[in-house]
Amino acid sequence: MNTEIQSLGKASIPSPLAEKYKNSSEAFVSDSDRIVYESNLKTIIEKKDCSEIISFEKAGPRKEIYFDPSKVKAAIVTCGGICPGLNDVIRSIVMESFYGYGIKNIFGIQYGYVGLLPSKGYELIQLHPKMVDTIHTSGGTILGSSRGGTDDMDAIVDSLERLNINILYTIGGDGTLRASQKIADIATKRNLKIAVIGIPKTIDNDINFVSKTFGFETAFSEASRILTLAHIESKGAPNGIGLVKVMGRHSGYIAANAALATNVVNFVLIPEVPFDLDGKNGFLHHLEQRILKSAHAVICVAEGAGQEFVANESVERDASGNLKLADIGVLLRDRINDHFQSRGIEANTKYIDPSYIVRSIPANPNDSLYCAQLGQYAVHAAMAGKTNMLVGSWRYDYTHLPTSLATEKRKQVDSNSRYWYSVLQATGQPPVMKN
């Protein structure tokens, strides 16, 4: 696993932070500072030599930087669906750039990568501390966001070159980061000195080798609140069933974390754990047993779960290239109602789909803190001349991660992990619902 970080060249300019932190020996880090991947001491000891130990470059300010701050022109782009914390990250990048490094030319790109296409006619937005001072109190992104715009990557790099952009911060999920990698690769081939730094954003928490993506904690916290309300609804009617669909195309972390946080959920259905609907060990049978025993139930289903049950002959994709999912929530609602009607059992199903509400709210305090630090570390990496990488966290440390490694595959819930066993214990659902 190659964790080496690409660099634009030798960093030889004294950092303007040096004077501010001259009395602190811990303020700066070097490229030799590493964060170990393994958490199990036994696994580390068993390695034959140190070269076999996987580690990540530690994030943080360097004593010497690559770019002259007085000549830097930086740009920020937010892509994909909106997410709690986007404005927090934008604010942090602007504040650290302006006050930390003295960079005055900071710009926002409107509506994702399409904002770099001349044919769209979008102007850059100049960003400064006064403008971004309070944006973190609002959800969404002041720059706007969109999917796609990446059909012609050379045109995007042409725009960056024409605009004399030295640093590009790309804030987004898997698709955004893949495009970020292509931008960096094209810039390298053209010998353009452009630092391309990603900040991983997705409420699905599915970025590889990143412990937590920003917005995830806020998202599952809001989902938890909605699940608690669904529980109240389920207990307010005879044989009440609260069915809540949350986001999670390929990874069920929102559903799983929300269930653990509330302890009111009886079934968690996620893409990583297959299940049957019918049969003696199918989901509907176990739901019926739960209703007959307790007279109410709460179900949390991730949007990507059970897609094999949904009649969807379309192969339509969105602008990011993601296959458009059919609505598993509606299918479950109808199948639940049909099942209980056929059994002659009264049931009152309340279906709740809060997806866009969950991702539109402002970040909670813990996510805001995380976003602020991600933004700061992104600026430190860019000024040091790092490129084709993203700033992430591994357990409790901030790291530099090659973009190629982060996009190699999606992080998913391990159904054999202690984490998933905790979900099973919290819900009481069977470990397997397959015939």
Structure description:
With 435 residues, the protein is α/β, with parallel strands linked by helices. It has two domains: 6-213 and 363-395, Rossmann fold (3-Layer(aba) Sandwich), CATH 3.40.50; 216-360 and 415-427, 3-Layer(aba) Sandwich (Rossmann fold), CATH 3.40.50. Helices cover 35% and strands 17% of the residues. The strands form four sheets. A nine-stranded mixed β-sheet has the order 3-4-17-16-10-9-6-7-8, sandwiched between helices. Strands 12-13-11-14 form a four-stranded parallel β-sheet, with helices on both faces. A two-stranded antiparallel sheet has the order 1-15. Strand 16 and strand 17 form a beta hairpin. Helix 3 (86-101) crosses helix 12 (365-383). The mean pLDDT is 93.
Supply the key terms.
435 residues; alpha/beta; Rossmann fold; 2 domains; nine-stranded mixed sheet; four-stranded parallel sheet; 14 helices; 17 strands; elongated
What average pLDDT do the residues reach? 93
How many domains comprise the coordinates?
2
Measured distance between first and last alpha carbons: 39 Å
CATH architecture of the largest domain: 3-Layer(aba) Sandwich
Report the portion of residues in β strands: 15-25%
Question: How do the strands line up in the largest sheet?
Answer: 3-4-17-16-10-9-6-7-8
Describe the main β-sheet briefly.
9 strands, mixed
Radius of gyration: 24 Å
Determine the fraction of residues in helical runs and give it as a percent range.
25-40%
CATH class of the largest domain reads Alpha Beta
Report the structural category. Answer: alpha/beta
For this structure, the CATH topology of the largest domain is Rossmann fold
- Low-pLDDT stretches are none
Number of helices: 14
Shape: elongated
Number of strands: 17
